[in-house]
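Please predict the structure of the following assembly.
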Amino acid sequence: MSAAQLRRSLLDLRWTVLWYSAGVAAYGMIIAAFWPAMQKNAEIFQQYIKQFPEAFTKAFGIEEMMSFAGFLGGEMLNFMWPLVISIFLVMTASAAVAGEIDRGTVELWLSAPVARWRLLAAKSLALFAGIVVIVAATVASIALAALLAGETLSAAGLAWCGAALLSFSVAVAGYGLLLSSMVSSRGLAAGLAAAVTLVSYLAGVVSALSADVEWLKYVAITSAFHPQQALLDRAAPGEIALLVGIGVASTLAALIAFERRDASP
Amino acid sequence: MGAPIELAQLTRSYGKHRGVIEVDLSVREGEIFAFLGPNGAGKTTTIRVLMGLLRPTSGRAQIFGLDCWRDAARVKALIGFCPGEMRLYEGLTGKEFLDLFAGFRPRSDPRRRATLTDRLDLDTARRIRQLSRGNRQKLAVVQALMHEAPLLILDEPSSGLDPLKQQTFLELLLEEKAAGRTIFLSSHAIPDVERVADRVGILREGRLIAVEQITALKDKRSRRADVTFTEPIAPERLALDGIRVLDRDADGRRFSLAVSGEVAAFLRILVALPVDDLRLSEADLDTIFRQYYSDEAVPA
């Protein structure tokens, strides 16, 4: 891996990561501020939610709103957080290689006397470091929100929740990097990565509608993403490992693809 | 260690599109070799193969005996490179940009960089997006030269530089050559090439059609003649060995000709024609170069 590239990529990402971290942390705190009011009317709200089709409540992760963890899951972790982080990851990962080709800097970039895979590995590592910061900010905001609301969340639950958020992010970043290393247009790479994420998400929703299409859950990364359960100490390490595995395998495939392809504006 | 650049039957095609075809070339140590050709002739494709961006379709490209594709990282450690398309990292300052590329090399002499920025009068404190085209070009040139690499590959390096800085740039090239470095230069600036290059290679439609010493090319003593007639003239009336039509206007009154050999014979032909104006220029590389691209010889 190239230390010079890693340093540069970390510097390039610092403000984006800072703003996303501040954004998700602030969002978590704001949502948590509504919990006392929600708590008073939790039963009514739960009955209200039950009026919706099951697919709808599953789609937005609002199946259980009686507990603080369920409320945070429904309002933040299950849908909004993955949506926001996916935008960050798709845009950043797609720029790694396709962005260099698209804006015409690839000739200069690849004039560095460093193997291509080392350059991309450095960019990938910087992206993963950014993910860690955003996840840490998210988990810290949840812990603080729980403290302010007088709710109890276990340290293990918070840690597993962080691991679940991290695993989802690593998976999206991985296939984003892979697509970026395979095409020459950043827009195309971002579009494809966004499409994979959306299709995967929809597959997860549709798979819950009927036993006939239940098999679709196997193509949905959201099937292995349960941060709310993780927060309640009901994490599934296998699911987390699976998502991390997808991310790592995709990133390795990206390094190989980039080594083998022509890279010309 | 092999030759600085060795191309053997190098072919690179883009599907149905031509890139370069069966190019054989050896660039010698310590020379300035200029690669000439119009847009689309294959100059940039060749450079991209040398820089390990493109894999050859067939044939071989080596730098100092190393394969440009398989040993790309080791090859690039031996190269200072200035790309043809001046796209830089817009958000960086000049200093950050140079720091980034210095960081990729184990040894980088800051005094060398300072000398280059001083001589090219480059302000490295400003963001690249705020720089003019000329200043971006200077930045790319400094980046290429600051590594003191044994081979410089420069794609249109002087485009955008003002005349004074072009002069400084040519001096820098000659100093690099005097220091024993090899320079592979692609350029449209033929007067610059004429001043500094030892040899030129001429590409036409992907094929290397000539490799000549600059002195040998000049010895061909083609002069350029721009002739205006008072009435349209058929090209056949200019028939003489050694005359090639480089250009002519649609009404057949104005001709640009390359005249090699005795000028007296050419003048004897003109005496019999209704000449309105004649300008006869010194032999220059531009005229010679254009001869290679002119299919039109005066019919005998």
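Residues 3 and 240 of chain A are 29 Å apart (CA to CA). Chain A touches chain B at residues 2-5, 7-8, 12, 103-108, 110-116, 118, 262-265 (CB under 8 Å).
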